[in-house]
Description:
It is a single chain. By secondary structure, the chain is α/β, with parallel strands linked by helices. The chain has 38 helices and 14 strands. Helix 32 (722-738) runs parallel beside helix 34. The protein is globular.
Amino acid sequence: MPAFGRFELQPEQRRLLRDGVPLPIGARAFDVLLALAERRDRLVTKSELLELVWPDVVVEENNLQVQISSLRKLLGPEAIATVPGRGYRFVARLRDLPAVPPHPAEPSGVRGSEPSPSMPVPAATTNLPATIPALLGRDDGLHLLGALVESHRLVTVVGAGGIGKSRLAQAVAHARIGCWPDGVWIVELSGLADSELLPHAVAQPLGLNVPEGDAFHALADALAQREMLLVLDNCEHLVDPVATLVDCMLKAAPELRVLITSQEPLRLGIEQQYRVDPLAVPRDATEPGARGFGSLALFESRVRSAAPRYMLAEEDLPIAIDLCRQLDGLPLAIELAAARVPMMGLRAVHERVRERFRLLTAGARTGLRRHQTLRATMDWSHGLLSDAQRVLFRRLGVFSGGFTIELAHALCADDEQDEWVVLEQLATLVERSLVMADAGAPVRYRLLESARAFALEQLAAAGETAALMQRHAVTMLKFLQRADDGNMDSTLRTDAYAALVLPELDNLRAAYAWAAGDGSAPALAIGLAAHAGPLIDYSTEISEWLLRQRAHLLPGVVDDATIARFWRAMAAINMLGTLTIPEVLDAAQRATACYRALGRPKRLFSALRLLAIWRRSQGDLEGALAALDEAAALIEPDWSAEFRIVVLRFRAWTSRRLGNHDVAEGLYREAIRLAREAGDWRLEVIERTNACDLCWERGEHGEAQQELLELITALRRRAVSDYELVEAMSMRAWVLAESGRLDEAVEAAREALPIMRRMPKFRLEGWAYLLWKLDQPEAAARVLGAQVARQRSGRELYQINEDRILRATSVALETTLPAAVLSSEMSTGESLTFSDACALLGDALSGSPASPPRSG
């Protein structure tokens, strides 16, 4: 009875045993296994297997694949080899079964038959080492690349220097030793400088002698009858001659398969590319399975190879993650950094990672010379570029956080390289893996941090740093101006503006830092701050830019349009509570005067809108309505719906203030209708939230919480920003609390709090009210104290419901707590930061289910 490994095949009993125990195996799977085992000395084609296992029955080929898959699950992946495009071969060492003669239908000279005298086969079937190191973090890559190799004759593994192309290709090739009768062979080409010697370099490990003359075609002819996998490693410096040779070989040898590693593809018609990505880096230490991410696993493994007792401590995990992130998940850089840890310690390596080209110089002596230092790797890749490509590469290093093709054109195109040349050279840099192309619309490009650091070194060496930094700042200012001009139909900002500009926030930061710092370019700094104004809702940094540049806003520094845009941005700062109301009111008045003088009606409208808001907040309702009437008179029929909605919203608020709730409801419903007709989801959300707020004010708690629940559900599917979502979620918690449904209120509050933590200017009076209703008066007093301190600073807008429940909470606490205790708790609360207040809320809510509801 035939046996192999731990298995025993019993044909007569139709049984398969492992360690003497019968295994469950289907009838068809058993027939497939028996057919392969009996013909173990040769390939069994798919058509032959189908005839043997399903005689006189027409079945789909995938039936065979299903049976092979089930057998591999029982036997392991090594017992049956797939011969791509041909069939299968039983490769496990079988005992006690005489060889079966070839199938009578199979002619001699095909795969699996005895080699003919004209086809000498080397005694060995591979020059790969017997074992190779474990490949960490590349399970998906091994599977996908292996599938490509099995189904295509030419596959190129493409990626940046040091990203692990060679190791991945070697691992895939090693796993397929035995799948081709003429073996699996690898040829290392990194040391070959003379392309004329290429055929000889390939022939040597195969035991072939290539005559002088047309060596390319001579080698192809010598391989004509070979059935093998040939790996050509590190081909980027010989792309054209390698492409010529591979094309010749594949045409002459129909059973030859070639696997290439290169920083750029060969660009042959039948070529399949597999681009190697950096190793995965966890978002942070709290991410499940963080230690199992490829970058962390490789880092820890390589440190242990030098210091076997090393253990990555839990408190050091965030540092290791950040180190791997700064090294872009690049395996070579991670290995070089890991080699420094036993001598320097993790924290010291992390602190000095910005000096990466000096730090990362501890590569293995047995590795390629260019892999022994990170600089050598970059020098190798850079040396393969043309002069024009080097110019573009170093200029692109100025971008921070990536760039679009439009920004690349604006920064890099000049008299010597027009936009079409930049596009062509950028495509080459992407192909050569020096620039990454990230999928999206529009496509964004980026340099890995190590490549960017090298590019900036090259820029400095060329003496171009100052000029390119200035050009980058000018490019980003023009980009912002175009985006801002495209935002003309919005009174403040739009999501389309944010979607366009937020991806460039790192570039804006870099441009502003240079203009406000080393570049000493106040006009650029003021312009960047002013035209980034619509980002205030998303980034508090912009407020800091504006406040810093206010002192530099002197006559003659910038033009009148930039001055107007600057004051309009300043007037919007208080949406996040940075300035006092008198300060933003002054900015709104300045912006209004500037836009009146410039004759720009849409910009004047938005300045008047802000002026009306801040006048109203100071109690000047008459002045606010005058500003609003002036703004409403500017509206033309072709203006977007937002301008009319803003007027409706303000008049609805005024009606509420005067007690005309029915009028206010009609105005809100009209605003919602206009927003829906215009297809503006952001405006619809604002007006629906306002309508819910009115229901709450009228005491229609059931209707308010139902409409809020519907809005929250819609926002979760189609969010505008965190602020709109947390506003609706928080309001629902407060409405539920006021209606006495405390268990539901606590649940809603717990869902809202994690989001609110990201909104450091969110109001707190509703949260104080909720804590009082939950019978936690001391905690309520502290949160109320934090809110009162903010109101005392003059940075809070008047809100009808929030101010109402603030007063209710204050009165309730005065009757609940002794005066000295209330004073002490509120004083403590006044010193709380927003983060402290959120932590207090989290602790207070964690102990609920709710206490019996308080009245009031």
